[in-house]
């Protein structure tokens, strides 16, 4: 494991801001961006040498990141980047999707013009970075976008919950291919349009779907036939069930001649209609006379 080249060029021990904060920030970014992989061991001595610091700030940073759920510390293995089981990932993604949807709903209701302007500026930068294929800029811009989106909801309790969930799920969503990155910013634009229009329902649905789709990409990837949802929100489940009901074709029943009984024998093709059996439209059979022979 090695930290990014910018750290090698600018050793943290040579900077002037609080050393502890620098080490925490650097390690957090390395984890959330996917440079440090889930399960990878964090060796204090090696990290200290690469950053140009002593072991103490590295040890303190590991404790901070462990409190955030990004690092796991065990007696046997020591410190390592946190891992998630598939069930844990599902549950965290589902919860974040629900809360992101509610936050977007509130943002559409509050209509804070100043925050919306800031979100628009971030969105423009993100779209420009995608066009220029500057994917290295998108991680920080994505964090800024969602941070301002949380501010637009103007609910501090919800905002604090979302911050923790974003940190916990960022490492799930970080290793995204360029196509997914571009689609992600298109989804950001759709969410913002719904918020500007004041469409609470659309904003909530788009924000929730955005998180679920990114989580789906992590859990099952994209297959050749398109995206197959691994799990759905309750309203999506209802919609999918309705769609399936409309598109499902009823089972075919064996065709039979009008008025034929269940036990009527099939006539050879081209055979003449038996005499006395043909009746005009609208006529009824006489009482006691069956329609079949």
Structure description:
The chain is an all-alpha fold. The protein has 2 domains: 5-81, Winged helix-like DNA-binding domain superfamily/Winged helix DNA-binding domain (Arc Repressor Mutant, subunit A, Orthogonal Bundle), CATH 1.10.10; 86-243, Up-down Bundle (Four Helix Bundle (Hemerythrin (Met), subunit A)). The protein is built from 11 helices and 2 strands, in the order ααααββααααααα. The protein has helices at 5-9, 19-32, 44-51, 55-67, 86-110, 113-131, 138-153, 156-173, 178-197, 200-220, 234-247, and strands at residues 71-74, 78-81. It has a two-stranded antiparallel ribbon. A hairpin with a 3-residue loop joins β1 (71-74) and β2 (78-81). α5 packs across α7. The longest helix has 25 residues, at 86-110. The protein is globular. The protein starts with a helix and ends in a 46-residue tail after the last helix. 26% of the residues are buried.
Summarize this structure briefly:
The protein has helices at residues 5-9, 19-32, 44-51, 55-67, 86-110, 113-131, 138-153, 156-173, 178-197, 200-220, 234-247, and strands at residues 71-74, 78-81.
Q: Supply the helix-strand structural class.
A: mainly alpha
What are the secondary-structure elements, in order, as H or E?
A: HHHHEEHHHHHHH
Gross geometry: globular
Q: Helical residue percent?
A: 55-70%
Number of helices: 11
The major β-sheet equals: 2 strands, antiparallel
Features:
293 residues; mainly alpha; Arc Repressor Mutant, subunit A; Four Helix Bundle (Hemerythrin (Met), subunit A); 2 domains; two-stranded antiparallel ribbon
